[in-house]
Write a structure and sequence with these properties.
164 residues; 9 strands; 4 helices; 26% helix
């Protein structure tokens, strides 16, 4: 086979990063068939950090349970090149396929942190990228019990300020 005729497939992470560089936002979900994102009890959340959107897409379903009941994960230093992904052992055992939806930023407002954006009215995605845990570009480190407890307490604190 002639190597000059082989097209290299762009990684999922690179595709998502390209969308972000164009000014678009990303919404990760375990649901792979959404035509319109709608707010419920919580607003629609989006991010400009591909790794965060991917983690939301592959997360176990129970990560929306009470913070103390579900598995937990975090992306440390999310805006930098040396970010780190950590998750509980149970998170990675239960992680599965999902989708990252690409959305226009027009309806979104700043959320809890600099990389989170929220919308309260329906948003139609402009693209969908299916993801699986192996699409993450970096190794996921195990979240120690001490760090797990710390991040859970931070989530509880933040939820008291902004309940989404």
């Amino acid at each position: 086979m002639n190597d000059s005729n082989v097209l290299l497939e762009e990684s999922v992470f690179a595709q998502l990063q390209r969308y972000v560089e164009k000014g678009l936002l990303l919404h990760g979900s375990r649901i792979t068939s959404i035509n319109v994102l709608k707010a419920g009890k919580r607003p629609i959340c989006a991010t400009n950090v591909p790794a965060i959107a991917m983690m939301y897409a592959i997360r176990p379903d129970e990560t929306f349970l009470q913070i103390s009941d579900g598995e937990i994960w975090t992306v440390e230093n999310p805006g930098s090149q040396d970010f780190r992904i950590r998750a509980t052992k149970g998170f990675m055992k239960k992680a599965g396929p999902g989708s990252v939806y690409v959305v226009e930023p027009g309806q979104f407002h700043n959320g809890k942190n600099s990389f989170e954006f929220v919308a309260f009215s329906p948003v139609k995605p402009v693209a969908r990228i299916d993801v699986v845990p192996s699409d993450l570009p970096y190794k996921i480190d195990r979240l120690s019990r001490r760090l797990r407890d710390y991040y859970r307490s931070e989530l509880v604190r933040q939820s008291a300020i902004l309940p989404w």
